[in-house]
Amino acid sequence: MITVSVCVGSSCHMKGSYQVVKIFGDIIKKEHLEDLITLKASFCMGRCMQGISVTADDKPIQNVGFTNAEQIFYNEILPLAQAKA
Fold it and tell me: How many domains does the chain contain in total?
């Protein structure tokens, strides 16, 4: 199981982090990944200038926005979860 954390601090909130949390949560449910991925909201991760801060098992994922969140999930997060399964 991996843990995905999405920053919901002020800067990331203004960039749409709550939409990213919703998108990730919807994909986890749609793909039945609840046993592989835990989704958490987090406060500042210190990478405010690089898009919405997201980590998957403490690995930073850069340049996340609500417009590319689905692509990021399938390209970056899902492979990590599948590798740990």
Answer: 1
